[in-house]
Amino acid sequence: MASTEIPIFTTPQEEIQYWKKRLEEKQQDMDDLETSFNEFQDFSKQLEEEMEEELRLCEKKCSDLQSQHARLKNDHETVLDKLNTSNRESSKLINSLQDEVTKLQAIKQTLTEDKRKLEQENDSLERRERASSASVQDLSDKLDKVMEENVWMQSELEESKQIADETIQRLRDDIRDLRLEISVRERKPTLKSSSSSSTEKPNSINTKRENPISFNIPRAQKSQRQKTEDTASSSRAGSLLVVTELINLVSDLENRISNFRLKPSNSNGNIAGTPTHDGSIAVPNPTHITYFKTYKFINKSQRVFIK
């Protein structure tokens, strides 16, 4: 508080009045200060109570926060342990998955190569299938043609067989006649011309019937009696040779026809180049070839020996 200058008093009364006035002022100031102090005390007390209440609340809150902190710390430790465990398990799982991925990649590479090989094989098989289809079609056409030829050959074979049977029968008849003629010639080589003429006449009648391989044996004349007797032995030898050849030919024909009748399935299966199961073309049956050759030989023999 700033000090005031004391005035100069002229009289004691003025000085007293002055100091009284000053005293009253000071007293008033003191009363004001006391009132302010009391108000301040009341306010301080109220503020202290509020602060104490707030402190109590803060302490309680702090205690709660400490408890919560401890709980959260425990939870944090638990979660951290779980996290570490999960990290370890995740690492193991990641490693195993990486190994599995590596294996799967290797398997994928192998499967890709196998797929490529299978595609190549598939293309090759398709090409082979197309070639086989074309070959099958070609073989089907050939088979149809061969079947037609087979039917024709069957009909020709039946006709040839019938002709061969007829030819064999005629050959048997001719052989029987020739044997009879030879036996007659051997029994009566030195008869007279009249007896020879009477003997040769029925033989000539027998030999003149329709026969594909009968022989034209000239009739002995009376003027040629001696000549006939001289050539009797050579005629007998030639006749025996012809008869032997005819007998062998007939036996061979009978054997071949018997073989042909015993094996009809084999003969039908290989006529005229029938395709086999492996796609090759079978050659004609040698039995048929031999049969036709024999038939040609018979015709040739007929041309040689028939009159």
UniProtKB/TrEMBL annotation:
Superkingdom to which the source organism belongs: Eukaryota
GO biological process terms on file: centrosome localization; chromosome segregation; establishment of mitotic spindle orientation; microtubule nucleation; mitotic centrosome separation; vesicle transport along microtubule
Keywords for the protein's UniProt record, in alphabetical order: Coiled coil
GO CC, alphabetical: centrosome; kinesin complex; kinetochore
Bias kind Basic and acidic residues: ranges: 115-131
InterPro entries, A to Z: NUDE
Entry GO MF terms: microtubule binding
Chain spans, region Disordered: 115-140, 187-235
Keyword presence, Coiled coil: yes
Protein family according to the UniProt entry: Belongs to the nudE family.
The protein's name: NUDE domain-containing protein
